[in-house]
Design goal:
- The chain is an all-alpha fold.
- The chain folds into three domains: about 325 residues, no CATH class; about 80 residues, no CATH class; about 150 residues, no CATH class.
- Helices cover about 50% and strands about 0% of the residues.
- It is built from 26 helices and five strands.
- The protein has a five-stranded mixed beta sheet, with helices on both faces.
- The longest helix has 30 residues.
- It is elongated, with a radius of gyration of 26 Å.
- The N terminus is likely disordered.
Length: about 700
C-alpha cells in the first residue's frame, strides 16, 4: 500500500533530510548538461552581440582603471550606464583568453550553467531530488534564460547571484546561522552592483522568509534581518560611494547620468524611473528623447528606425513590453519569453501554502513556498505594472522561481492523489490549463512548427486524464502508468519552451534588446534584434595586416561568420559614415590607426553603437560622445575643443544635428563641420569623418 507523503510530520528547516537516492547526482549532471548544451552550443552565433558591453569588456581587459569603473573605452572617457560587475567578469575573460566572441560570451554561458546547478541544489534541500530535477530543467529551458545566458547583457550574472543568495539564505535557515543570512545579503549587494535596483526585488521575499521561518525567538530573527540589511547596504553602496566621492575630473563620466553621478542612476534612470516612468537621465532610452525618438540621433541614416521601437515617444514601457497591466506577462512581447509554466507555478504555490497551513513555523517545504512564491510574486507585480523601461529579457530573473515552484508543485500535487479519490484532479487541471496557454503562445506564430501547440495540448490532455484516475487501493502497475503519464504531461508542457530555445540557439542577435524564440514572434517588437539596426548591426573590421583580429576575422575580408559583419568586406556603421549599411570598415580603421599619432582616442563618434563597433575593430579606445545613444552631456563643446587642442583627439565621426552639446542642439556638430576638415578615404564610402587637427 502506498504511503501518503503529505501525511508525514512536517520537517523543520533544521531537520536532517531523507537519504538521497542513487540517481540524485546523475540527475544533477543531467540538469547541468542540459544547461551546457543550451548555452554553449553555437555560442558565438551572435558575434559580439551587444557591442556596448563587448567594447566595455575589451576596455576592461586593456586597463584596470576601465575595469574598475566599467568604462566604455580603455582611456575611461565615459562608463556604461550600469554598474561594473558584469563587465568586470567579461573583462577578466577577455584578458585571459584574448578578445573574441567566445571570450565575451563564455562567462554568460557559465553563469547560466551555474544557475541551473545551484537551483537544483537549493530545491533539493527544500523539496527533494524529484522537485530539484524538474526545477532545473524548467528554469534552463525558459526562453528568456536561453537568450540571456547566450548574450552579454548584465542579466546573466544578476540571475546567478540572486540564486546563490537564495542558496545562502536556505543554508542559514537550516543551520540557524545568522552569518549565512549576511552572506545572502552580500550576494544581493553584488547583484546590485551588476544591475542596480532590480537586484532588490528578491529582498521582500528573503526578509519575509527569514522572519517567518528562521529558528529562534522573534528578537533573534529581527537581529538577523538587521545584520543582513546592514550587509546589503554596505555591499551595494561601496562602488557608488567611491565613484561619487572621487573628483569628477579624475574619473570617467558616469554614462546615462545628467550630473556625472552614479547615485543619480540608482534613484533615476536605472532605479525609480524604471518603475514609475518619466524621462531617464541623458535621455538614455527614456520616454522623452529616448530610443523611440526618430530625431534623437539626428542622422537620417542613424541608429534608429522610427518604426523599429513602435513608440513615437520612445517610452520604455508600452514601446518595449506592452501596456502595463495584470496580464502583461502573457502579452505578445513577454508571454513567449517566460509565461509558459506560470499557471502551473501559481497553482503549486496556492496548493503548497494551503497544504501546509497548519505546519510548524519552520516547516522546510512551506519555507520553500514562501521563498520562491514571494520571489515570483514581487517580480510579476513589478514587471506587470511598472511604467518605465522594461525589456522582455528582464524576465530571466523569474525563471528560477517558476522552476522551483513547478518542481515542488508536481511532487506535492502528485501526493494529493493519495488523500482522496479526486486527489488527482488538481494536478490534471494544472497540466491542462498550462497546456492551453502553451498552445495559445505557439498559435501566435503559426508558421513556426505548425500544429505543435495543438499536438502538445492533445498529449497533455491525454496524460492529465490518466493522472486524474483515482489511485486509492490500486495496483502498483497503475501507479507506474500514472507516473509515466505525469512525466509525459510535463514533457508536453516543455515542448513550447524547447522549440523557442532551439530557435534562439540558431539566431544571430545584435543590439541591446534580444528576445528569444522564432523571428515571427519577435517581428515588430521594440529594440535592436536580428539586424534591427539599419545596416545589419555591429561593426567588425580587421586592423591593418590582419593582426590581432577580433572574433576570428578573416584577413582581407572583414568578415567574421556569425557576427553580423557586412559580407561585402566592409564594416557596417549603423547610421555612421555612408548612411544605412554604409561600408567603411577596413579602410577607415586602417586610416585611423595609421594617422593616430599620440592621440588618446583614435576617433570620437556619436553614441556607443558607432563608437563600440570601431573600437572592437581597431582594438584602440574610441570616444563615445554622448554615451549610450549620444545624448549624455559629455563632452561639452569646451571639453571637445580642449581634447582637440591638447592632441588627445584628432578625428571625429560627425553625426547629425543632435550631437551632445546643449542636449539636442547642434553645437558640437556645427563646430566639427565648420572648424574641422572632411576626410576622404580611398576605398571607403565614409562621408562624415573630420580631421580636427589645428581646429580652433
Amino acid at each position: 500500500m502506498a504511503i501518503d507523503p503529505l501525511a508525514q510530520q512536517p520537517a523543520p528547516v533544521t531537520a536532517a533530510r531523507e537519504p538521497d537516492p542513487r540517481w540524485l547526482w546523475p540527475a544533477f549532471l543531467g540538469v547541468v548538461g542540459l544547461a551546457a548544451v543550451l548555452y554553449l552550443v553555437n555560442l558565438t552565433v551572435s558575434g559580439y552581440a551587444n557591442t556596448y558591453y563587448s567594447a566595455a569588456a575589451q576596455a576592461a581587459a586593456q586597463s584596470w582603471s576601465a575595469w574598475f569603473f566599467g568604462s566604455f573605452d580603455s582611456a575611461s572617457f565615459i562608463t556604461v550606464d550600469k554598474p561594473p560587475l558584469s563587465t568586470m567578469l567579461m573583462g577578466l575573460s577577455v584578458r585571459l583568453l584574448g578578445l573574441s566572441s567566445w571570450s565575451v560570451m563564455l562567462p554568460e554561458a557559465l553563469c547560466g550553467i551555474a544557475t541551473a546547478g545551484v537551483l537544483f541544489l537549493v530545491v533539493r534541500r527544500q523539496f527533494g531530488p524529484v522537485a530539484a530535477t524538474i526545477a532545473g530543467v524548467v528554469a534552463a529551458l525558459t526562453p528568456a534564460a536561453v537568450v540571456m545566458f547566450r548574450y552579454n547583457n548584465p542579466d546573466a550574472l544578476l540571475t546567478l547571484l540572486l540564486v546563490l543568495a537564495a542558496w545562502a539564505l536556505v543554508r542559514g535557515l537550516e543551520r540557524d546561522r545568522i552569518r549565512w543570512a549576511v552572506v545572502a545579503a552580500v550576494l544581493v549587494g553584488f547583484a546590485f552592483n551588476t544591475k542596480y535596483l532590480q537586484a532588490y526585488l528578491v529582498l521582500p521575499g528573503f526578509a519575509l522568509t527569514w522572519a517567518i521561518a528562521a529558528p529562534g525567538p522573534i528578537r533573534r530573527r529581527l537581529g538577523g534581518l538587521f545584520a543582513a540589511g546592514l550587509a546589503a547596504l554596505v555591499s551595494s553602496g561601496w562602488w557608488v560611494l567611491i565613484v561619487d566621492l572621487l573628483p569628477k575630473d579624475s574619473r570617467p563620466w558616469i554614462g546615462g547620468s545628467d550630473t556625472n553621478s552614479a547615485l543619480e542612476l540608482v534613484v533615476g534612470y536605472n532605479g525609480l524611473a524604471r518603475i514609475f516612468g518619466g524621462a531617464g537621465p541623458a535621455g538614455t532610452d527614456g520616454p522623452a528623447g529616448g530610443l523611440g525618438n526618430p530625431g534623437n540621433l539626428g542622422n537620417p541614416g542613424g541608429l534608429i528606425n522610427p518604426g523599429n521601437l513602435g513608440n513615437p515617444g520612445g517610452g520604455g514601457g508600452p514601446g518595449f513590453s506592452g501596456t502595463p497591466g495584470l496580464l502583461r506577462l502573457f502579452n505578445d512581447e513577454l508571454g513567449g519569453q517566460v509565461a509558459w509554466l506560470i499557471p502551473l507555478a501559481l497553482l503549486a504555490l496556492v496548493a503548497g501554502i494551503l497544504l501546509r497551513g497548519r505546519a510548524i513555523r519552520t516547516d522546510r517545504k512551506r519555507t520553500g513556498y514562501i521563498l520562491w512564491g514571494s520571489w515570483l510574486a514581487v517580480h510579476a507585480m513589478v514587471f506587470s505594472f511598472m511604467s518605465g523601461i522594461i525589456h522582455s529579457y528582464y524576465t530571466v530573473a523569474m525563471a528560477p522561481a517558476i522552476g522551483a515552484l513547478v518542481g515542488a508543485g508536481m511532487v506535492d500535487l502528485w501526493g494529493l492523489r493519495w488523500r482522496s479519490k479526486l486527489g488527482g484532479l488538481p494536478l490534471a487541471a494544472g497540466i491542462v490549463g498550462t497546456a492551453v496557454l502553451a498552445a495559445d503562445l505557439l498559435g501566435r506564430t503559426p508558421a513556426f512548427f505548425p500544429g505543435l501547440g495543438t499536438w502538445s495540448l492533445i498529449v497533455a490532455a491525454a496524460a492529465a486524464l490518466v493522472v486524474a484516475v483515482p489511485s486509492i487501493s490500486v495496483s502498483p502497475a497503475l501507479v507506474r502508468i500514472q507516473v509515466t503519464a505525469a512525466t509525459i504531461g510535463l514533457a508536453a508542457l516543455l515542448v513550447g519552451p524547447a522549440a523557442y530555445a532551439s530557435a534562439t540557439m540558431q539566431t544571430d542577435y545584435t543590439g541591446g534588446t534580444p528576445a528569444a524564440g522564432p523571428a515571427t514572434a519577435r517581428a515588430g517588437r521594440g529594440g535592436f534584434q536580428d539586424g534591427g539596426i539599419p545596416g545589419g548591426g555591429q561593426v567588425i573590421g580587421p586592423p591593418p595586416n590582419g593582426a590581432g583580429l577580433p572574433g576570428g576575422v578573416r584577413p582581407g575580408t572583414g568578415v567574421n561568420p556569425g557576427t553580423g559583419v557586412n559580407p561585402r568586406g566592409g564594416t557596417n556603421l549603423p547610421g555612421g559614415p555612408g548612411g544605412p549599411g554604409g561600408s567603411v570598415g577596413q579602410p577607415l580603421v586602417e586610416y585611423l590607426l595609421a594617422n593616430r599619432g599620440d592621440a588618446t582616442w583614435i576617433v570620437a563618434a556619436n553614441g556607443s553603437q558607432e563608437a563600440g563597433s570601431i573600437q572592437l575593430a581597431a582594438g584602440q579606445p574610441v570616444m563615445a560622445m554622448g554615451g549610450f545613444n549620444g545624448s549624455d552631456p559629455a563632452p561639452s563643446l569646451e571639453q571637445l575643443k580642449a581634447y582637440v587642442a591638447s592632441g588627445k583627439l584628432r578625428f571625429v565621426v560627425s553625426g547629425g544635428g543632435n550631437l551632445p552639446g546643449g542636449r539636442g542642439a547642434s553645437g558640437l556638430n556645427a563646430w566639427v563641420t565648420s572648424a574641422c576638415q572632411p576626410v576622404a578615404i580611398a576605398g571607403s564610402t565614409a562621408g562624415n569623418l573630420y580631421d580636427c587637427a589645428g581646429a580652433r
